[in-house]
UniProtKB/TrEMBL annotation:
Source taxon at top rank: Bacteria
Name of the featured protein: DUF4926 domain-containing protein
InterPro entries hit by this protein: DUF4926 (IPR032568)
A matching Pfam family: DUF4926
Length: 72
């Protein structure tokens, strides 16, 4: 599995960002890769409205992977 963060990856914050009112573990979507070390992440509420968009260093993000396991 690649560790490269790509556009539209779902990510979680590894540290709180109180200046943006984001807590550790908050989930967002990568909307743009800015460089090899940073990307722009968008955070939305349950209503779909964006409440934060900011540049974040890749070291502060964890890519979330979803696996669909089919019952036997």
């Amino acid at each position: 599995m690649s560790n490269t963060i790509k556009t539209l990856d779902v990510v979680a914050l590894l540290r709180a960002m109180p200046e943006a009112q984001l807590v550790q573990g908050q989930v967002g979507t990568v909307v743009e890769v800015l460089s090899e070390s940073a990307c722009e992440v968008e955070f939305c509420g349950d209503d779909g409205n964006v409440y934060a968009t900011l540049a974040i260093k890749n070291q502060d993000l964890m890519v979330l992977h979803y696996s669909h396991i089919q019952a036997a």
